[in-house]
TrEMBL record:
Lineage: Bacteria, Pseudomonadati, Bacteroidota, Chitinophagia, Chitinophagales
Pfam families given in the database record: Methyltransf_25
Keywords carried by this UniProt record: Methyltransferase, Transferase
Descriptive protein name: Methyltransferase domain-containing protein
Organism: Phnomibacter ginsenosidimutans
Residues covered by the Methyltransferase domain: 111-203
Single GO MF descriptor: methyltransferase activity
Entries under Gene3D superfamilies matching the protein: Vaccinia Virus protein VP39
InterPro entries membership: Methyltransf_25, SAM-dependent_MTases_sf
GO biological process: methylation
Superkingdom of origin: Bacteria
Length: 249
């Protein structure tokens, strides 16, 4: 009996050690694959810089979102024409943009349009936001985000999270939303429609608003409806972001 108990205890200890080890190996492999992807499509220096911040950022914000997804299996072919692949925003550039926000705006609502696996939702909670929402066209991405949300309860008890599947062209922008995050999630056609939705929300409830926009290809669409660029950063050519600001007249 004693021998059986010892064997059982040893097995339990082995299993408890094996699970964290398995997780560490899985994370390491995700970083390696992401490094290879960036090095192949851009360059090795950028890959090293980005992956360094991936490791640091995932530990800091308690999120696991490194990787690439073509989305071919999770959204329709028609929608895929207007969407980009899933690639997480660089922690480095996203942190720079969050740091530009005044404290009072963190007491309002945050919306990530094209939230992917929820990375910037966790970052928003870390920076003090309490009402945090995300939309994505991919049901698979939303499922991942909702799993992550369940794990964040102990890290961000002050925050309320909500993520749902929806086309950005159809979203009713919540009237409490005053900060929107974008990482070039869709093309100009969808961006035009989304900005119209934002403008409708601002007309219904005039308020100050900030847009944190990484890889800002369609910044001019926002500027056309009254947003002003107040911050710009670019590093290693590819890591670029702007902060757009709207103040009702």
């Amino acid at each position: 009996m004693a021998g059986q108990q010892t064997h059982s205890a040893t097995g339990a200890r082995f299993e408890s050690c094996r699970q964290p080890l398995s997780g560490m190996l899985s994370n390491a492999w995700a970083y390696i694959r992401y490094f290879i992807f960036i090095a192949r499509h851009w360059d090795i220096r950028l890959a090293a810089f980005v992956v360094y911040h991936e490791i640091k950022g995932e530990h800091k914000y308690k999120t696991r979102s490194t990787g690439i997804d073509t989305l071919h299996s999770s959204i329709s072919a028609e929608d895929l024409q207007h969407a980009s692949i899933y690639q997480p925003v660089s922690f480095y550039i996203a942190e720079l943009l969050f740091q530009q926000l005044p404290f009072h705006i963190t007491q309002t609502g945050f919306l990530d349009a094209g939230c992917g696996k929820g990375r910037t939702m966790a970052m928003a909670a870390y920076h003090g936001f309490k009402q945090i929402e995300g939309i994505d066209l991919s049901a698979a991405m939303i499922a991942h985000t909702n799993t992550a949300i369940a794990s964040w309860a102990s890290y961000y008890p002050h925050a309320s999270f909500h993520a749902w599947q929806q086309n950005a062209m159809d979203v009713q922008v919540p009237l409490h939303t005053s900060v929107i995050f974008l990482f070039n999630p869709f093309d100009a056609f969808v961006m035009q429609a989304f900005v119209k939705r934002v403008a409708e929300s601002l007309q219904q409830q005039p308020r100050e608003m900030y847009v944190l926009y990484c890889n800002p290809l369609y910044k001019d669409i926002w500027e056309a409806v009254g947003f002003e660029s107040i911050f710009h950063s670019q590093k290693m050519h590819y890591l670029e972001g702007v902060v757009l600001h709207f103040l009702p007249k």
